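User: Fold this; tokens only.

Assistant: Input:
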Amino acid sequence: MRSFFLSNFLILSAFVAKAEPIPGNVPRLEMGEQAIALKRGDATIFHYNIKPTEEAAEVEPFFSRTGYIHPLMAPSGAIVTGDYAPDHRHQHGLFFAWTKSKFRGEATEFWNQKRELGDVRFVRFHGSGRREGKFWFEVEHHFTSGKDSDEAILSEIWKIEVPQESSQFHSFDITSTQRCATDDPLSIEKYHYGGMAIRGTGQWMPPSESAPPVGKMVTSEGKSREDGNHSRPRWVVMHGPVDGEECGVAVLAHPDNFRAPQWVRLHPVMPYFVFAPMVEEPFEIRPEEAYISRFRYLVFDGKPDLEVIESQWNDFAGVEVTPKAE
């Protein structure tokens, strides 16, 4: 397999050399050999992994992955995501992966890596900047038919935008733009999960087989993991204690996303959920049209404030709310 990492690290290093110091408590990037760190002042918001992490060396090679976010941190520094979990090695922090699919008549699979039918990898850093009160950067991934394949099936661009102004929580938006890399479509088959996903910290797992999960989930419709699986919410919150202190993450889906509001897979035990547009019907990503999806992430300390999350969704979706009469 051809390695993209050396050439891209040289590009990143050149970018850093040209960058000017950024004063104050505003978002900025720190480019490392293994990951891009998004920071605000001295606080880390997340790492975006451009090379396999140290944990990848401890598992089978087919579980190795790049092009995802982990660790994702609350303002206190608590880590709310998990990676290479013992129960599901293929779940990686904040990641996008299609599950049951076909390309040129052959089965492909980008989620369950043990099947070795597909791979998702970081290939390129596109740049960063500041505009209209936001800091942004772009990265590119390729979806291929396997780790030994350099032919891309899909090219995916993540544009990540962060408000310049700080708040009581970490906030950022991801716009994923997926395009066919050939003249052939990718067929996404009907399945009960797959899409934009998040794996939570292992501290939210049940302490024993007979115990309930420590982490909790709640949707915009007030449903939990017990009754919210395959419902179609606007947003989902996952939260619980990390090192004894409550924190969590909310994922808000934009109303312009394909088949919005999308179905969600809320796992009954594990701390993970995914927005899954193929739950009831298949679809294709075709060469003539990009597949674009947008999500907002709020990472917070303490209990989730559902009114604030709903207000953030209204802002993200461009919904005007009429003030209540006194």
